[in-house]
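can u do me a favor
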């Protein structure tokens, strides 16, 4: 059973910022396309099998029900709420994202 998918406004903004950074700052349109493709692929897996990925390795986020999946050097945080998967945030793995959620 495929779950319904929601992407928070914050995650939508973070996604746009990542793609913009990859294209405009790093001058890597191919890297941006790769990120977008990998994001789509991983979100598809999450939507079909949300429990395929474990709770976040950070205890404070795991306690709040966040799961995580890697997309290149980024971490996508999501929650399963009833029949919905909610993509909450997308952070670079170098960020201290536990304090940002």
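np, heres the sequence
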């Amino acid at each position: 059973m495929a779950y319904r998918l929601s992407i928070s406004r914050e995650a939508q903004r973070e996604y746009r910022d990542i793609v913009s950074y990859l294209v405009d700052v790093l001058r890597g349109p191919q890297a941006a396309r790769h990120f977008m493709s990998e994001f789509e692929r991983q979100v598809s897996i999450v939507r079909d099998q949300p429990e395929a990925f474990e709770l976040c390795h950070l205890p404070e986020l795991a306690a709040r029900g966040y799961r995580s999946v890697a997309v290149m050097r980024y971490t996508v945080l999501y929650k399963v709420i009833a029949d919905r998967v909610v993509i909450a945030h997308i952070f670079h793995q170098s960020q201290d994202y536990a304090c940002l959620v």
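The chain has one domain: 4-94. hope that helps!!
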